[in-house]
């Protein structure tokens, strides 16, 4: 699998975007992630699954630079990545959503998604205050990108609604919108379907697939709901107690004994 | 039939479009909100887009006389797809976009469409699902490219690619279009529209250029519509009204058609566009009024007080002011003040502040609802029409507007009431025939061109206005021989905000009974206000307090029915509140949301017999269809209630 592969539905998956090599992350004496290696390839939907406390969110936080692992290295497009701040990593084209929605509740949907464009705005505060020429032009360009995201996610009707007043499923969609507005190359989704009903889950799955299909965005998602993951992912990493216990296509993972044990429990009798 | 009703040189849509492209070259013809901004196209741009698409059609092999199916929500591109079909000598057939695959298969098979223009992936998927049943379909053209990349594109083309192909081959294709258009005249078929059919399968109504253009011309003149007007196109494209407003009248008068950003944003878009010409079914106005009332209940006491004072005043003098009757200076001043404080802002919020001509039709509208809008100074009127008439049969002229009539015959329309009370009409808009259905054509339209409406009504002697009682075939006799007109009672019931839908039974029986559908909006709001807890629609619909309220409404209706000398026998004896909303997906209603009485009767026959056998409760199980076509079932135990009936004293004079 060194030079990519072709998915069953005919998409060509490219080179490694990100490679994790022997990552170990400790909080004091607690080992959150233990010696994990895996890669994420261009254009694929890569899932990280595992029971509660397996270290999935920690893994995502390592990828987006929020945590720095004590051991191991991260290769970004084949080069070792130096420890960076999250905003520097965001500038490299990695965007994410959060497990417990982290939006500005008092701001409108539009404004929230607009914040996703922050890294792409170059004019300084002074010219923004004067609001002539470059600043206004820049706002328009960014607004256009944001409007395309709004159109894509079909949330025109809530464009001006304060996010705090929206139901949970829509807030999740707005959060996805904000991440998309950054036009990321790699999109990290932390439990995008947690707490949703079946219909909302189906909608969200559709949007994730559409994002991947339409923009060619590489997506890494953490999920709890096995069914959804197996349906939409190309490859799955399974974690348990900070260790990797499986890695492969949904079918391979589904038949992996260690995975079955972790999810269904082992008879110790 | 009447020849020469159309002016020379303006007897087909390609000709109208060519005229508009010169006469109103830079006047906006279509608008659509996209990416948060209203995009607009002038008549010259529209003409270019339509021609490019028409040439693209020809390049793909569209023949003269072909039927071109158009499926999607109101978007300028789809209106152009219809105009382009006409420009290429073909016939557009718009379909209801919420139709499921099965309903769609029937229509596509019946008209034998070779070309299908689908708005997006969802519609393409529906067509592909039924492709096996449609050997005629050769090309599918889709507008929205999203999600379409992975499809096999042998017979699939993107709208803009078809246009590009047309533009590229214009030297070769333009003469073909010219030649085809030269063959079209006022008798050529303009469009084929499928009626939603309250009974049986949909029928394809063939309408000629004369039908559409003459109707558009007459109705535009009736209300002085001109190029400065604007409308919001949000009703299904497959419905004849939308075709007349958004294509017929728009091409005739040159006014601008605005399309909403998405179905959910319609209300906000309405407010931004502020149309001057507006059509909505009574249901829409009812819903809007319910919303206003709910919000006023939640407003501060000061605002509520102001609203009450000025609305009472508006009720008194508003309609008179609108009709141009004389009103005292003091009242005028108070109305002006009310306009400043209440009516103006309210109309603005509703998006109706610029409405010069507003119409409602399709169902009876509650007198209070009708008066509410008129008292605000909105010129809301009623019209009566149907697909077979190219909409217009009767309409209300300014100054003669009433809630209980549907107006005087539209210009060019002749009316006749048959002995059994059925309304017949004859007009330039009268349809040509039902497609592939000579029997139905003969049943509906006689040799002299008179068309049976299927509605029973009478012409009021004092005013010359037509009043509709009910569907002619629904009018029956009760066991004691008195007249039974279910719609008459149902309409009275539906005027209560808590009641969304009602179905009354009683033909050939001793007493009348009713199914009621509660209006979830209104009842849920009431429940919240009164601390009534409920978990589902079903639970709310069966709540004893809700039943009490509905019972009260029915008793009031009975009192009012008792006053009508002809129909006093139609008072409701027993009722139940249904555990599910009647729904087009279950076949209980048409896509235009008219109740299919017969299907409801068959589906809920157990409930009807319970209404007549005196039982107090009944357990039932009903099959429901979800939006995606899956089926499920719901179980419920319903309570049946008796209602007080007003004893009728037969007046000797009657």
Tally of individual domains of chain B: 3
Largest sheet of chain B: 5 strands, parallel
Largest sheet of chain A, if any?
6 strands, mixed
Overall mean pLDDT score of chain A?
88
The assigned CATH architecture of the largest domain in chain A is 3-Layer(aba) Sandwich
CATH fold group of the largest domain in chain B? Rossmann fold
User: What percent strand of chain B?
Assistant: 15-25%
- Uncertain regions spanning at least 5 consecutive residues of chain B: none
Number of strands of chain B: 29
Helix content of chain A: 25-40%
What is the residue-mean pLDDT of chain B, rounded to a whole number?
90
By DSSP, the count of extended strands of chain A is 12
The number of distinct structural domains of chain A comes to: 2
Write out the strand line-up for the largest beta sheet of chain A, numbering strands in chain order: 8-9-10-5-11-12
Cα separation of the termini of chain A:
40 Å
Q: At the third CATH level, what is the topology name of the largest domain in chain A?
A: Rossmann fold
Over the alpha carbons, how many angstroms does the gyration radius of chain B reach? 26 Å
Account of the 3D structure:
The complex is a heterodimer of chains A (269) and B (654). By secondary structure, chain A is of the alpha/beta class. Chain A has helices at residues 56-63, 86-91, 109-115, 125-130, 134-152, 168-181, 198-215, 226-232, 250-254, 257-264; strands at 5-6, 12-13, 16-27, 30-41, 45-49, 71-76, 79-80, 94-96, 186-190, 218-223, 235-240, 243-248. The radius of gyration of chain A is 19 Å and the shape is globular. By secondary structure, chain B is an alpha/beta fold. Chain B folds into three domains: 13-279, Rossmann fold; 280-378, no CATH class; 476-642, GMP Synthetase, Chain A, domain 3 (2-Layer Sandwich), CATH 3.30.300.30. Chain B has 21 helices and 29 strands. In chain B, the strands form eight sheets. In chain B, strands 4-3-5-6-7 form a five-stranded parallel β-sheet, with helices on both faces. In chain B, strands 12-13-14-15-16 form a five-stranded mixed β-sheet. A four-stranded mixed β-sheet of chain B has the order 2-1-11-10, sandwiched between helices. Chain B is globular and about 80 Å long. Chains A and B meet through helix 5 and helix 7 of A and loops of B.
């Amino acid at each position: 699998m060194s030079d990519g592969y072709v998915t069953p539905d005919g998409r060509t998956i490219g080179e490694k975007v990100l490679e994790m090599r022997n990552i170990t992350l400790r909080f004091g004496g607690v080992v959150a992630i233990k010696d994990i290696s895996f890669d994420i390839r261009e254009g694929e939907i890569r899932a990280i699954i595992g029971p509660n406390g397996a270290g999935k969110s920690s893994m995502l936080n390592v990828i987006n630079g929020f945590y720095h692992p004590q051991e191991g290295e991260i290769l970004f497009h084949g080069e070792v990545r130096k420890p960076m701040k999250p905003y520097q990593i965001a500038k490299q084209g990695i965007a994410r959503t959060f497990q417990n929605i982290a939006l500005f509740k008092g701001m409108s949907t539009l404004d929230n998604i607009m914040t996703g464009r922050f890294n792409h705005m170059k004019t300084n505060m002074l010219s923004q205050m004067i609001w002539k020429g470059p600043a206004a032009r820049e706002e328009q360009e960014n607004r256009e990108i944001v409007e395309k995201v709004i159109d894509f996610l079909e949330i025109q009707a809530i464009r001006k609604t304060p996010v705090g007043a929206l139901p949970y499923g829509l807030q999740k969609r707005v959060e996805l919108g904000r991440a998309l507005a950054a036009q990321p190359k790699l999109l990290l989704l932390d439990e995008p379907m947690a707490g949703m009903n079946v219909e909302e889950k189906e909608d969200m799955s559709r949007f994730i697939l559409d994002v991947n299909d339409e923009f060619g965005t590489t997506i890494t998602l953490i999920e709890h709901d096995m069914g959804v993951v197996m349906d939409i992912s190309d490859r799955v990493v399974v974690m348990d107690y900070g260790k990797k216990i499986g890695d492969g296509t949904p079918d391979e993972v589904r038949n992996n004994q260690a995975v079955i044990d972790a999810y269904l429990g082992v008879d110790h009798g | 039939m009447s020849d020469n009703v159309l002016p020379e040189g303006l007897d087909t849509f390609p000709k109208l479009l060519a005229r508009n492209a010169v006469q109103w070259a830079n006047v906006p013809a279509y608008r659509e909100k996209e990416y948060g901004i209203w995009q607009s196209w002038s008549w010259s741009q529209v003409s270019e887009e339509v021609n490019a698409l028409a040439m693209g059609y020809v390049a793909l092999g569209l023949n003269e006389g072909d039927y071109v199916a158009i499926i999607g929500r109101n978007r300028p591109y789809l209106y152009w797809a219809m105009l382009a079909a006409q420009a290429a000598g073909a016939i557009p057939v718009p379909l209801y976009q919420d139709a499921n695959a099965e309903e769609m298969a029937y229509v596509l098979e019946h008209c034998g469409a070779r070309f299908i223009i689908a708005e997006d992936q969802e519609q393409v998927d529906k067509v592909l699902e039924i492709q096996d049943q449609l050997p005629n379909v050769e090309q599918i053209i889709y507008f929205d490219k999203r999600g379409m990349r992975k499809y096999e594109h042998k017979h699939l083309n993107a709208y803009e690619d078809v246009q590009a192909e047309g533009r590229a081959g214009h030297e070769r294709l333009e003469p073909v279009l010219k030649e085809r258009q030269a063959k079209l005249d006022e008798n050529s078929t303009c469009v084929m529209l499928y009626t939603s059919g309250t009974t049986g399968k949909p029928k394809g109504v063939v309408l000629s250029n004369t039908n559409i253009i003459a109707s558009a011309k007459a109705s535009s003149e009736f209300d002085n519509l001109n190029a400065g007007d604007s409308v919001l196109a949000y009703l299904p494209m497959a419905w004849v009204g939308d075709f007349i407003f958004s294509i017929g009248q728009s091409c005739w008068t040159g006014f601008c058609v605005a399309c909403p950003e998405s179905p959910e944003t319609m209300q906000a878009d309405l407010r931004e566009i502020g149309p001057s010409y507006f059509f909505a079914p009574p249901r829409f106005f009812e819903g809007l009024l319910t919303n206003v009332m709910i919000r006023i209940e939640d407003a501060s006491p000061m605002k509520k007080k102001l609203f009450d004072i000025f609305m009472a005043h508006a009720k008194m003098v508003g309609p008179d002011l609108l009709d141009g009757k004389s009103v005292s200076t003091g009242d005028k001043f108070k109305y002006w003040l009310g306009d400043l404080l209440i009516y103006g802002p309210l109309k603005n919020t509703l998006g109706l502040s610029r409405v010069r001509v507003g119409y409602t039709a399709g169902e009876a509208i509650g007198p209070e609802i009708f008066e509410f809008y008129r008292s605000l100074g909105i010129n809301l009127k009623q019209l009566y029409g149907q697909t077979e008439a190219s909409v217009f049969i009767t309409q209300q002229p300014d100054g003669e507007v009433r809630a209980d009539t549907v107006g005087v015959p539209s210009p060019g329309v002749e009316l006749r009431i048959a002995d059994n009370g059925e309304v017949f009409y004859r007009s330039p808009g009268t349809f040509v025939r039902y497609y592939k259905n000579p029997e139905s054509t003969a049943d509906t339209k006689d040799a002299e061109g008179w068309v049976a409406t299927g509605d029973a009504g009478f012409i009021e002697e004092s005013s010359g206005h037509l009043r509709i009682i009910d569907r002619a075939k629904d009018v029956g006799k009760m066991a004691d021989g008195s007249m039974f007109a279910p719609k008459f009672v149902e309409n009275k019931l539906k005027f209560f905000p808590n009641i969304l839908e009602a179905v009354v039974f009683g033909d050939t029986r001793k007493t009348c009974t009713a199914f009621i559908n509660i209006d979830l909006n209104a009842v849920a709001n009431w429940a919240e206000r009164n601390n009534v807890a409920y978990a589902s629609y079903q639970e709310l619909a069966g709540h004893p307090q809700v039943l009490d309220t509905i019972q009260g409404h029915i008793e009031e209706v009975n009192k009012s029915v008792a006053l009508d000398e002809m129909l006093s026998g139609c008072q409701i004896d027993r009722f139940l509140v249904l555990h599910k909303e009647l729904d087009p997906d279950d076949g209980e209603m048409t896509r235009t949301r008219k109740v299919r009485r017969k299907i409801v009767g068959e589906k809920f026959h157990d409930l009807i017999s319970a209404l007549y056998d005196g039982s107090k409760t009944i357990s039932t199980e009903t099959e429901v269809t979800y939006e995606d076509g899956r089926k499920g079932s719901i179980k419920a135990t319903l309570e049946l209630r008796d209602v007080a009936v007003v004893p009728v004293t037969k007046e000797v004079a009657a």
